[in-house]
Design goal:
This protein has two helices and ten strands; from the N terminus they run H-E-E-E-E-E-H-E-E-E-E-E. The protein is mainly β.
Length: about 200
């Protein structure tokens, strides 16, 4: 009987550890450390950029089963900046984002898959701009996941890249000067609401 007890205790301990490690964590994206940067070719000479900030964002992260993870983000279009005031006004107006009518863009993931490279993931989702929804695929990399040294709560950070066609969303003005393909570069930091 003595030889059985340690085995039972070990099995129970492993079960508890496995269940603890498999607990998904819900994070809120930090708008002050999250940016979406869009770049495009202008006449083949330069690659200007627009920086977007998020309004709200939630990441449900399951480290042991990334496929069970999800992300949902709202982008506050009215806060975009290109550092060129005249271009900002044009982007905010009816010819582009028409923020008076469509103040928010949204991204909702539909699938998360781990890649062959450690810490890299493919995030597939739906991007909605001006009530037009199209699929977008992002290549994401996990930068870090551990307790935040200042907030003392679990924190996580990712970078991601992707491309889209602006014409898919009705953002098709000046096609002779501005490339249709838009490159996306995203960086994000997120915090759990309480220490797990």
């Amino acid at each position: 009987m003595k030889s059985v007890i340690p085995h039972i205790a070990l099995a129970a301990g492993l079960a508890i550890a496995a269940s603890a490690s498999a607990t998904p964590v819900k994070y809120s994206l930090d708008p002050t450390h999250t940016q979406v940067i869009a770049t495009w070719s202008h006449l083949g000479f330069s690659k200007p950029a627009a920086v977007f900030v998020i309004g709200n964002g939630t990441l449900n992260w399951d480290a042991d089963n990334p496929a069970a993870s999800s992300v949902s983000v709202e982008i506050a279009l009215g806060e975009l900046t290109t550092t060129v005031p005249a271009l900002d006004r044009r982007f905010l107006g009816e010819g582009y984002f028409d923020v008076g009518k469509y103040p928010v863009a949204r991204f909702e993931s539909t699938a998360v898959a781990a890649s062959d490279k450690d810490g890299h993931f493919t995030v597939t989702g739906t991007l909605t701009i001006k009530d037009v929804s199209k699929p977008v695929t992002l290549d994401a990399v996990l930068n870090g996941s551990h307790e935040h040294p200042m907030r003392k709560v679990p924190a996580i950070g990712f970078d991601a890249t992707g491309t889209l066609k602006r014409s898919d969303f009705g953002l098709d003005a000046y096609p002779q000067a501005v490339a249709d393909e838009i490159e996306l570069r995203i960086t994000t930091e997120a915090f759990a609401t309480a220490k797990e």
